[in-house]
Design a protein that fits this description.
With 203 residues, this protein is mostly helical. It contains eight helices and no strands. Helix 3 packs antiparallel against helix 4 and helix 6 runs parallel beside helix 8. The radius of gyration is 16 Å and the shape is globular.
Length: 203
C-alpha cells in the first residue's frame, strides 16, 4: 500500500466545506443530545446546504468567471473572495440555523470558525497563506474535546481519531505541495486559539 497515494484522499474527505457538517453530526448523534430526530436531520440538512451545496455552486460560478481555478483554491490571490463569502455564510448559520439560545455549543463553534476565517482573510493582505484544511480540522478537534468536557462523556476514541486526522491532513497538504510547514502551523493556530478562547462561554 503506497501511503503517498492515499494521503491526498484526506485533503478531499476533510475539505473545509465538510467540517461544519461533521461537527453537526457529532453534536447531534455522538454527544448524548436530547433533540428530536427530525430536528437533528433538519439542522444538518441546512448546514449541508449552506456550507457544502452553496459553496460548490459558487465555486463553479467563480471558476466560470476566472476568479478561481481549483476547488482547493491554492493561489493566494484567489482566496479573498471565497473567504469573504464564507464569512457571510457562517453568519447566516449563526443567525438562522444555530442560534445561541437553541444550540449554544454549535453557535460558539461557528463563531470561532468566523473569527478564524476573518484572521485567515487578514493574513492574505500581508501576503501570508494559512492552511484552511488545518484551520478547520483543528477547530473540529477542539470542539469535540470541548463537548466531552462539557458533558463529562469521554469519547477517547473520537479524540484520538481527530488528533490522528489532524496529522494526516497536514501530511496530505505537504504531499500535495499545497502548503509549507509554516502555513500549516499558522492554520492550526488560527483554528485552535479562537475555539479555546470561546470555550469559557459554553462549558
Amino acid at each position: 500500500m503506497n501511503l503517498k497515494k492515499i494521503l491526498p484522499v484526506f485533503s478531499y474527505v476533510f475539505h473545509p466545506i465538510f467540517i461544519p457538517a461533521y461537527a453537526a453530526l457529532y453534536y447531534f448523534f455522538f454527544n448524548n443530545s436530547n433533540f428530536e430526530t427530525k430536528e437533528k436531520y433538519f439542522v444538518i440538512l441546512q448546514i449541508a446546504i449552506i456550507t457544502i451545496a452553496l459553496p460548490i455552486g459558487l465555486f463553479f460560478i467563480l471558476r466560470a468567471v476566472g476568479k478561481v481555478d481549483s476547488i482547493m483554491v491554492s493561489d493566494l490571490k484567489q482566496r479573498k473572495i471565497p473567504l469573504i463569502i464564507l464569512c457571510f455564510l457562517i453568519i447566516l448559520l449563526m443567525r438562522k440555523t444555530a442560534p445561541l439560545k437553541v444550540y449554544p455549543e454549535l453557535h460558539f463553534f461557528f463563531l470561532g470558525g468566523l473569527i478564524s476565517t476573518l484572521q485567515a482573510l487578514l493574513f492574505l493582505f500581508f501576503k501570508t497563506k494559512a492552511s484552511l484544511h488545518m484551520m478547520t480540522i483543528s477547530t473540529l478537534m477542539v470542539f469535540v474535546v470541548g463537548l466531552n468536557i462539557h458533558h463529562q462523556i469521554w469519547n477517547i476514541n473520537w479524540i484520538l481519531f481527530l488528533i490522528l486526522i489532524n496529522g494526516f491532513v497536514g501530511f496530505s497538504r505537504l504531499e500535495m505541495k499545497a502548503h509549507t510547514t509554516k502555513e500549516l502551523g499558522i492554520g492550526f493556530l488560527l483554528g485552535v486559539i479562537p475555539q479555546l478562547l470561546l470555550l469559557h462561554f459554553w462549558l
